[in-house]
From TrEMBL:
It comes from the Eukaryota. Residues 167-192 are annotated as: Disordered. This is Tudor and kh domain-containing protein-like. Gene3D superfamilies: 2.30.30.140, 2.40.50.90. Residues 176-192 have a biased composition (Low complexity). InterPro entries: SNase_OB-fold_sf (IPR035437), Tudor (IPR002999), Tudor_domain_containing (IPR050621). One of its GO terms (cellular component) is P granule. The lineage of its organism: Eukaryota, Metazoa, Spiralia, Lophotrochozoa, Mollusca. Residues 21-80 form the Tudor domain. One of its GO terms (biological process) is piRNA processing.
């Protein structure tokens, strides 16, 4: 993964000129991941909450946050042309109980995968499934934590905890492709 830090990117937001005045869902902006973070990252505006917070998705590392409107900035056009570094995936061999991941399941998943701690997980693409558009495929991945005495299959752990039901690989009747890689998990989330 490439961290989106380009010389001049963070210096660009020092003045008031680039503050967002209108919130437009889908627009790319610059924001900090946490209060006190001095680094700005590219984020997509997902919407605005009832209490006026802006819901943001960080396109280069795949995490979400809520921010105040005065803390997000417009991006120069040259910063919007780079491909997003985060890739949305679906977890293999498990489906959420009730058809959607609960907040508790997401929290447990983040604990299992060391969300935002930059620890290495083993990731194996087992197939691809159709995403939001018929021509768009999403990787279906098996995630393993191999750092301990025994490997932990993230899907199995979610099933054992009652957050997911098992799915046999043959039921994920999408295009099959097997490749393996290690991924540094700066952030993660469960695909719905």
């Amino acid at each position: 993964m490439t961290i989106f830090l380009v010389r001049g990117f963070n210096d660009h937001f020092s003045g008031q000129n680039y503050r967002v005045t209108d919130v437009v869902p889908g627009e790319l902006v610059a924001a900090r991941f946490e209060e006190g973070d001095s680094v700005y990252y590219r984020a997509k505006v997902l919407g605005e909450t009832a209490d006026g917070k802006i819901d943001l998705y960080f396109v280069d590392f795949g995490d979400n946050t809520f921010a105040n409107k005065q803390d997000i900035y417009k991006l120069r056009s040259d910063f919007t042309s780079f491909p997003f570094q985060a890739i949305e995936c679906r977890l293999a061999n498990a489906e959420p109980v009730g058809g959607q991941w609960s907040e508790e399941a997401i929290t447990y998943f983040e604990d299992l995968t060391y969300c935002a701690q930059w620890k290495v997980l083993f990731c194996r693409v087992v197939s691809h499934s159709h995403h939001k558009h018929p021509n768009e495929l999403m990787p279906v991945v098996q995630l393993l934590d191999t750092s301990g005495a025994q490997d932990v299959d993230i899907a199995v752990a979610l099933v054992e905890r009652g957050f997911a039901t098992p799915v046999k690989p043959s039921n994920q009747n999408q295009k099959s492709e097997v490749s393996s890689s290690e991924t540094s998990n700066g952030s993660s989330g469960l695909a719905k």
